[in-house]
Amino acid sequence: MSEQLALLPGYGIAHLRLTLVALAVGAALSVPAGIWVTRRKSLEPGILGVASVIQTIPSLALLAIMVPALGALGALTASWFGVSLRSIGYVPAVIALTLYSVLPILRNTVTGIEGVDPALVEAARGVGMTPGQRLARVELPLALPVIVAGVRTAAVWVVGTATLSTPVGATSLGNFIFSGLQTRNTTAVLVGCVAAAALALALDQTIRLLEVGARRRSRGLLAAAGAVLLLLYGVTAASVAFERLGGGERSLRIGAKAFTEQYILAELMAQQVARGTGRPTEIVSSLGSTVAFDALRSGDLDVYVDYSGTIWATIMKRGGSFVDRDTVLAEVSRFLSREHGIRVLGSLGFENTYALGMRADRAESLGLRRIGDLPRVAERLEIGGDYEFFQRAEWKALVEAYGLAFRAERSMDPALMYQAVATGDVDVISAFSTDGRIAAYDIVLLQDERGVIPPYDAILLVGPRIAEAEPGVAAALESLVGALDAGTMQRLNLAVDRDGRAPADVARGFLDAGRAPE
Amino acid sequence: MIELEELTKRYADSVAVDRLSLRVAAGEVLVLLGGSGCGKTTTLKMINRLIEPTSGRVRLDGRDTAEIEPHSLRRGIGYAFQAVGLFPHMSVAGNIGVTPQLLGWPDARVRERVDALLELVELEPAGFRERLPHQLSGGQQQRVGLARALAAEPRVLLLDEPFGALDPLTRDRLQQSFQAIRSRLGLTAVFVTHDMVEALLLGDRIAVMRDGALVQVGTPEQLLREPAGDYVADLMATPRRQAEVMERYLEGGGR
Ligand SMILES: Nc1ncnc2c1ncn2[C@@H]1O[C@H](COP(=O)(O)OP(=O)(O)OP(=O)(O)O)[C@@H](O)[C@H]1O
Ligand SMILES: [Mg+2]
Prior knowledge:
Low-confidence stretches of chain B: none
Distance between the termini of chain B: 46 Å
Mean pLDDT of chain A: 89
Strand content of chain A: 5-15%
Mean pLDDT of chain B: 92
CATH class of the largest domain in chain A: Mainly Alpha
Oligomer: heterodimer
Helix content of chain A: 55-70%
Radius of gyration of chain A: 27 Å
Largest sheet of chain B: 6 strands, mixed
Number of domains of chain A: 3
Number of helices of chain B: 11
Number of strands of chain A: 10
Helix content of chain B: 40-55%
Strand content of chain B: 15-25%
Shape of chain A: elongated
CATH architecture of the largest domain in chain A: Orthogonal Bundle
Largest interface: A-B, 17 and 22 residues
CATH superfamily of the largest domain in chain A: MetI-like
Bound molecules: adenosine-5'-triphosphate, magnesium ion
Number of strands of chain B: 10
Radius of gyration of chain B: 19 Å
Largest sheet of chain A: 5 strands, mixed
């Protein structure tokens, strides 16, 4: 608990930074757009329509889309102006959240202005106001409570949605929730949820005060609410300034995808770099799988661990059966270095392969040992896979090679997959071979006798800039090459997944003792 | 001087004002009289371009108003709305001072003017200056509306039933003070009313409208002596009928 609470100020302020900036920018865009729409009635359906469509995009997808979109934009600005944009982290998150705040503010601005009594608009013209004066002195003041109510709705949405910016690399209260769900740390999940709810409530009430103040035209209420908001913005600005001043050296950014093994490996790398070079590090965790690779390529991440088969199949789009482990490793290394300037330090010493897993007793009763045994019973079985599995080249290769056709394919969170197969909710899952829960839930992995699934050596990737400029980092990390065998990794994973220990703790224990807990 | 030439306002399926030609001399008060829906308000709003005429022309001191920027035209014309239309988020002082402020008067002069006008419409400045419109009665709001119309010392006034919601005594007193200021300032005004007595009392001339068209225009005497048709005759007879009822009461006859 105290460990989670220690993270709260950092995550909370990061969350505020996302929310407050998105709201301010959102209001700065939407109020003028709303005013403009009321002056040009013919545009109203079009503009409100676009805003509504943005709103219907699932928030997680809207956030995720920003990464490739900014990547493409960054490539353009880099070639035109020599400035590249950061495609992961704060910027994409803030842009998506800003877009998300547009509709309620825009709609309320339009409703508010159109709701002003026509007799008063006429009176404003009658006393000699120009259209601008009419807007500033009559229409906006009278529409203000409605506009503020729109900002209030947007604030609650944005606080909630900001928890989803973790996978695009922006720190937020969502970090508690994402890593907590993956590492079965209920306390972390709760801390994240409660903090986000409290923040939403606090902002909601503050803005409500503003709304009531605007409605009653009470200077006192307006001043009180304004002071609270000013304080929040002040804290946020101060935290940014503090970081800028205190920062000096940019910390080394270490990536982790959204599963336990990756959290542990990121901690291992961070602690190893700290021990070896004393350089400040920062872990960007719970990243989407391709987000991590894109970020490394573009320099938004400095190091992370990926798997040779993932690069081979997903990025290089290679296939084939029974490809040799060393061949894949060598070709992936050559490809990454040649195409992207990314350096592969080597394999950590274990494979984490995709494998089809079943509960041992169930596999036995059906007489299943190899994937080749599946087709005759598959139509009676359901398979569960992580979010990307059924889109991946490996799944397509499996289906093609073995002629698999299951009764149903279910995408689910990797953390829930093992439980689902253990309780019989699904019959087969796309397991990760190093997952500690394979042993814990008595799951067997079916043999890929046709060698369709490529090898998945965990490989240490160093981004182009660090590979060039900071040999010390690579040197410090090199001691991890070959340091973990599959059994070790499984035990480390289990220490988090079953025993509820913190990844940082587990990593520290390993580095101190030179081995995994029993 | 205000001149209306063949002024017409047509809506999709009706004619609100039909080829109306009138002339209001400088310093004259013209009363527009007529039944509900006959086009009085529409006529008034066409004078300061709150409504653009379908055809016809309005000249102000010889200048075609279509050539004047609407907002500067309106700053020179005081308008008291039938629906009053006080700005609910501004104090009484803010409402009255709005046009002077738009004209860039210094604050002190605006304040002085506001207090003088409050006195004029018989609202005690200290007690009313800072009130919001919703804290006033209907009649008080109407008086503030009249003060707002007078605020920028306009040479032309358009008044749409400005005393409609007042009790008889206040109405009487305000009619008196209106008479006083308009002769002191030499105001040119178009005054809309339903009330015959008010028309006779305040109008130098009276224009009777019916279904958007002008029926007759003339001095009260002319309208009383030579009404152009039954409608005007009937209209002019109403005060006399009321007076007769009064007389019978006074003689102790009852109805
Ligand atoms: N925007 C509009 N669209 C269509 N018809 C209108 C519009 N405004 C006014 N009218 C019509 O024009 C006619 C004149 O209206 P106007 O407001 O000038 O009447 P009025 O003489 O001021 O009546 P009252 O004494 O009841 O205030 C009415 O029949 C009214 O219904
Ligand atoms: Mg009217």
